[in-house]
Amino acid sequence: xxxxxxxxxxxxxxxLKGFGMAGQQKLQQARVLVIxxxxxxxxxxxxLVAAGVGHIGLADHDKVSLSNLHRQVVFGTEDIDxxxxxxxxxxxxxxxxxxxxxxxxxxxxxxxxxxxxxxxDVIVDATDNFASRYLINDACVLLGKPFVFGAVSQFDGQxxxxxxxxxxxxxxxxxxxxxxxxxxxxxxxxxxEGGVLGVLPGTIGTMQATEAIKLITGLGxxxxxxxxxxxxxxxxxxxxxxxxxxxxxxxxxxSEEQFIATDYEWLCGIPQKGIKEIDVLEWKQNxxxxxxxxxxxxxxxxxxxxxxxxxxxxxxxLPLSGLENNLSCxxxxxxxxxxxxxxxxxxxxxxxxxxxxxxxVFSLKGGVLGLAEKSII
Length: 377
Known about the structure:
Rossmann fold, 2 domains, globular, 13 strands, 5-stranded parallel beta sheet, alpha/beta, 8-stranded mixed beta sheet, Oxidized Rhodanese, domain 1, single chain
């Protein structure tokens, strides 16, 4: 790397007290793995690339969609239907061609963790589901890697640094010390189901990038053993002190074999793979004679009254929160469940299939958002 160009590019951080050329060299030699290229991953990668982190790994199996653009500001309308990692890789090369980026256009698994985590200094979680979060955490504990955590939901965000090496040789608390087990089905909604303020992932992702840079350079004090909480509506911030939780040990895989054998999707309540999903076009062509059940809460928009009336559907609104107590009214019925994005409807289908195994039960893939994308509502 040309030293003159390097100084000009990074001059504003090189002149920081305690940073200097030594700090820049640490960044240049660092290897950071970011899992997720969405609302959190976009600002994380942008700022790590701009700061001059030498090598970045990026994993995401998703494609860009129109509904991403209000918060995933690396992408434009011209990128819709392109793989996210490909777009990020191309645009980050334009930002800083000195940074080497490796990408995986694959769903991240235990095998990926065991194969690739040893090659990286810092692991950054930019995913939006509990199965991935517990998977990443357990792998970091097993392999001794620091884990920069971030999460967003509606108007709230959290950031922490888990499993950081301490001066006495121990490790700081990990995600399971905070939450030994995942929440129950539907207890906490993801962004597709519950919504998210567009600017919030930018705030939280930038905080995660900050923590990664501090881990690499040794500057300041990280959010190790602390959980940073932010509310965008009030601009209030508070920090919780975290301590180890002995209960977490009984749930943590203690070996690579146990880690490989753990079914994280089952652990996090993701419905069985046998559940039948149908897309919007299949539904219109073949399943309009099924009872159409909207399991969203009453405040979720748009409502489907007009659509159901225009199609002559038999339908009902039955929120997931009360579904278990009302399964009897669906027993032995042929049902298509719909929610906002297609996740809760899978849970509903799973519940009804267990209660009424002989029923014809389906989940509408993509949910109401899928109907909107097809211009059906």
